[in-house]
């Protein structure tokens, strides 16, 4: 790897302390940048803005969505900002490059009944150890609105190592989960009654808080081989569980986070509280759930209001030979007729 990239990734890991998944994505995108520059016969410090625009256009023509291109450009922009701070370049070649505008899609959320059905589902044919673990992670995803990266980073209890390495933990006494979200920001989220009961069942099978198993592996959720679960394994387990539970569509972890936000907002209408629970830095990110809430209200209106879908009654047809008599209209007051209205 290019020495400049190695130095920047060290900066990202040690000084900025970005999440592990973000570090992985930065490594991937910057390795791609290095390869593109090498193909063009350029060093990383020599890349011009026109070349960056050409690469963005090539990604778009290859079928990459605007949101994905924006994430790549954001990574490159941060790298070149750091190069400028080191005095290695005069200007940032990515500053004025923008990704194609992506359509604003509403987040996919489950209905309340579907979400509760999934959370209540129990698989009698599964291994009790796996069943208790999967039930607990579903309850935390839906009951606390965690990101999948925050979920896999949870430990059974707080420790100096967890704080240093950006991991979270659960506090059963206070019924709270402490996580480190995007940008290294820590937040505390309440654990609901059902999620608390599911966690206690899982911890009983996993091993008590003071057991040797916790000392060997502090991860809250782990596999049979004793290693911390990965986001991919949680995706697979949740997809399998949603199919077995009879969900109309396969469920992924972020769908439960969307469901959490949408259902809390529907019940409370407190946008600021939902922003704090989700850990959004900007409330505009949270406001997308108000559109989901409006959809919910529109569906309720269509289903309940007697005028929502009722067609206007047709006028009875006049009998042959009958004369239509115009209905009498109230006499207009002086100065209110059409001729007296000002023209626009």
TrEMBL record:
UniProt-annotated location(s): Cytoplasm
Record-linked Pfam families: Phage_int_SAM_1, Phage_integrase
Annotated PROSITE patterns: CB (PS51900), TYR_RECOMBINASE (PS51898)
Keywords of this entry: Cell cycle, Cell division, Chromosome partition, Cytoplasm, DNA integration, DNA recombination, DNA-binding
Chain spans, region Disordered: 304-344
Family: Belongs to the 'phage' integrase family. XerC subfamily.
Protein name: Tyrosine recombinase XerC
Native source organism of the sequence: Curvibacter cyanobacteriorum
Gene giving rise to this polypeptide: xerC
